Amino acid sequence: MSAGLTRRPPPNGTRKSAALLAILIACPTADASLGFVASLRRSSRIAPRAAVPNGGPLSGATEFLRGLLPAPSGDADAARRGALKYSLLSLVGERGADRSDVEGLIGEIAPLSPCPDPSRSPLIRKEWVLQWTTEKEINFFIDWNISDDVTQTISYDGGAETEGRLGNDISFARGGGLSVGGGITPNKENPLRTDFEFSEASLDLGRWGKYEVPPVGKGWFDTVYLDDELRVDLNSRNDILICTLRE
Fold first, then answer.
1. Domain extent listing, the chain
2. Minimal CA–CA distance to 134: which of 19, 232, 247, 11?
3. Ramachandran region of residue 47, left (φ > 0), alpha (ψ -120 to 50) or beta?
4. pLDDT for 13
5. For 103-106, which contacts have Cβ atoms below 8 Å and span 24 or more sequence positions?
6. Per residue in 84-124, pLDDT tens?
7. Is the CB of residue 106 less than 8 Å from the CB of residue 84?
8. pLDDT category, 73, cuts 50, 70, 90?
9. Quick one: how far is CA 229 from the chain centroid?
């Protein structure tokens, strides 16, 4: 500020009007929460915010004022989800990740799942790549470097209320693989739960032939977190599966 010049404070009424205008601009839900806003608008000559075109004189002020306020809860949840997803996938990417540490992160991210009814959601009907599990049978193939590509495919040809199909595939590094398939249905009482029963299995040994083997297993899995790229399951055998979408 130049020497000899002083800034005079605005009149008290101007400060109050500016503060009220800031509240109205920055809070789109003010109409529902403040009963006096409707009557104020009826008596005011100020045009509604929707009448201000993009790039109009108030658009810059609106963005500035909103930037001064805390982020809406939805934005905060999305940021929290992103951070937790990164932490979870980073943890399970480490060899020998501790189950208790994984469960701790699952306990934080599960309440933030954007999908309240995963067993019936189209998001679950895809091919998923296993990133980490506590299932001993699967870890046998991974720990002994027999396979580094384990996938699970979920599909519902007739819609989510009909019986769908579950396919587990363990591709062997030197060719061949183990495939297990069966039927699935969304549980009627628990929106997180999918019931399954395997009905077929085959073992492909490449040049040594392909063999049908007796399928083993029935139970359920609860999808405690689901979005368009991450899925976290807890199942009836007290095992954990963490999968990402096949790209």
1. 12-69, 117-245
2. 232
3. beta
4. 45
5. 103/240, 106/224, 106/225, 106/232, 106/234, 106/240
6. 999 999 999 998 899 999 999 999 999 999 999 999 999 99
7. no
8. low
9. 7
Q: Fill in the amino acid letter for 169.
A: D
In 3D space, the residue among 104, 137, 121 whose CA is nearest the CA of residue 193 turns out to be 121
pTM of the prediction?
0.70
> Among candidates 62, 60, 110, 67, which has minimal Cα distance to 85?
110
CATH code that applies to domain 117-245: 2.40.128.20
Average pLDDT, the chain: 78
Give the whole-angstrom CA distance, residue 67 versus residue 60: 11
Q: 3-state DSSP call for residue 155? A: strand
Residue 115 structure tokens? 């999908």
Exposure string of 84-98, with b = 16+ CB inside 10 Å and e = fewer, is: bbeebbebbeeeeee
- Give Cα separations from 20 to 15, 53, 211 (angstroms): 9, 21, 76
Residue with tokens 């977190």: 225
Query: Do residues 25 and 58 touch, judged by C-beta distance below 8 A?
Result: yes
Spatial separation of the C-alpha atoms in residues 45 and 51, rounded to whole Å: 12
Assign 165 to helix, strand or coil: strand
